[in-house]
Specification:
Elements (H helix, E strand, L loop, with lengths): L3 H21 L4 E3 L9 E4 L9 E6 L3 E4 L1 H7 L3 E9 L1 E6 L2 E5 L4 E5 L4 E6 L5 E9 H8 L15 H13 L5 H19 L9 H21 L8 H8 L3 H9 L5 H19 L5 H7 L5 H12 L3 H10 L1
Antiparallel strand pairs: 1-4, 2-3, 3-10, 4-9, 5-8, 5-10, 6-7, 6-9
Helix pairs in contact: 3-5, 4-5, 5-8, 6-7, 7-8
Length: 318
């Protein structure tokens, strides 16, 4: 049994959690299991954007509930696209129920009541929630009826997860590209959440056109890879498509154009580190399209798990 001071500490911790959730996601009521002696939680929104913020919520509470009263008080008019990063949960809304495991997603309407149940018997629940403004969703999806609390595990789920992670980590060169990514996310949701989606007789031909555009975009990137000024906007212009469509094309392959450029440069630099063992790492960074040595070292280690110097030493010795 908790002592009085321990109970007060638990109550204060719960209040702090609810306050942070309310601030970033809206009003929710929380319950935790009687067997949970300590509420563990983390709520982070490192890069707030108008209309497209991505929040990470990690916790070991058993239930979070949003009532109709909570919705009316908040008066929020958007959807949440929820990605289960780790752990598992059951997301309920309008009589529907989505059982989410790691990598699964679902759409939740903030203007209506909902209930989230978490299985924290073996691990914490870890979720990313991306705000999608209702007017933007309706503009792109044409006001179709949307299925909420339905588990999304279709062919685009990994692409959606990758884009959400990019937005959360702020691997986006500009607000223009962030907006394009949001549009791409909404477009990719169409076959997963639109209840009255008509069949298209042009699906195969559209897919063929998109594949050609993607190949052309990759060719443009390869040709200008070493130019530090290369951006998704430049690629889109040379391919003859919009920045938004360019993001949609790459998102279907679980990556953003900006990330594809960086990873291509990293692979190029890795080859040069081994092939040109006597060349300074700073020169290799510059020759691979990076203009900032510290940035190059940071993204190189994040991608390969070791610094450029460590990478070169191991490969040269072997």
């Amino acid at each position: 049994m908790f002592t009085s001071s321990a109970s007060q500490a638990m109550s204060s911790n719960i209040d702090s959690f609810i306050h942070k959730i309310t601030e970033l996601c809206g009003r929710y009521q929380m319950q935790h299991s009687a067997s949970t002696k300590t509420l563990q939680w983390s709520v982070e929104q490192p890069h707030a954007r108008e209309g497209s913020s991505c929040t990470r919520v990690i916790n070991n509470c058993s239930l979070m509930r949003r009532s109709d009263t909570d919705s009316r008080i908040d008066d929020h008019d958007y959807y949440f696209l929820v990605l289960q990063v780790a752990g598992s949960s059951v997301m309920e809304q309008d009589g529907a129920q989505a059982v989410l495991n790691s990598g699964d997603l679902t759409l939740i309407d903030s203007s209506r009541s909902s209930c989230f149940r978490f299985d924290v018997s073996s691990s914490l629940s870890d979720q990313l929630s991306l705000i999608l403004q209702r007017n933007q969703v309706e503009k792109i999806l044409g006001g179709q009826q949307l299925a909420v609390a339905r588990a999304i595990r279709g062919p685009y789920s990994s692409g959606l997860a990758a884009v959400m992670n990019e937005l959360y980590l702020n691997h986006i060169p500009s607000e223009e590209h962030a907006s394009a990514l949001i549009d791409a996310v909404i477009s990719m949701l169409r076959p997963e959440v639109c209840l009255d989606l008509p069949c298209s007789s042009h699906g195969d031909s559209l897919r063929s056109v998109n594949e050609k555009l993607l190949r052309k975009a990759k060719a443009v990137i390869e040709k200008q890879l070493l130019d530090p000024s290369l951006t998704p906007s430049i690629v889109a212009d040379q391919v003859g498509t919009s920045v938004r469509n360019l993001h949609r094309l790459f998102a279907k392959h679980n990556i953003t154009p900006a990330r594809y450029i960086i990873e291509s440069r990293l692979l190029k630099s890795a080859d040069r580190l081994v092939e040109k063992g006597d060349l300074a790492i700073s020169n290799i960074a510059l020759d691979s399209g990076f203009i900032d040595l510290s940035h190059f070292s940071r993204v190189f280690k994040a991608y390969f798990g070791e610094t450029p110097r460590e990478f070169r030493k191991k490969r040269v010795l072997s």
